[in-house]
Amino acid sequence: MHHHGYLWTGPKERFDNDALRRPPHPEPPPAGSRPELIQRHREVAAEFPTVDLPPLETAYWLIKPRSLVRGTWDEPEEAAAWLGERLAEYASRFVSGGDRAAERRTALVSSITGRIGGGADVSLGFYLERPSYLSLAVVACSPNRSMPQLPCPGR
Q1: What average pLDDT does range 60-78 have in this prediction?
Q2: Which of 35, 72, 125, 144 is the most buried (most CB within 10 A)?
Q3: In whole angstroms, how far apart are CA 71 and each of 21, 40, 63, 94, 128?
Q4: What pTM does this model have?
Q5: What's the rounded Cα separation, in Å, for the pair 55 and 125?
Q6: What are the tens digits of pLDDT across the range 72-101?
Q7: What is the Cα 60 distance to its own chain's centre?
Q8: For position 155, what pLDDT does the model report?
Q9: SS3 of 51, please?
């Protein structure tokens, strides 16, 4: 097993677009549905696999374009270290003073190492100034524990 890292930051209002953060329903709207409902289903079906927004279910990062992978690691400690480096990089922009505290970030990274080592996916989110949002994820691959059918984006 190995792990892929993902990072997204952007306007909170874009992050809140849940329709593009979840896979489309497997069945399209029935014939005779409102045209705007049919069109919206088509848009989501086309955009979900390619949009850079963090998926609501962390494992779905694996179907996103390979270009969104920010790192790949065989060891959980390496993946957790990457998360720690990103947290330190963005800490000065965190809205919450508690999230800016180095001790809290260190404890968070320490707890994450064990979860990653056990094959779990990890997803973190932080409000940033302006209002923006930071989403970080480390996703287990080959196979993913929660969705083993998802393909690996490659190494």
Answers
A1: 96
A2: 144
A3: 21, 33, 15, 23, 23
A4: 0.92
A5: 12
A6: 999 999 999 999 999 999 999 999 988 999
A7: 8
A8: 61
A9: coil
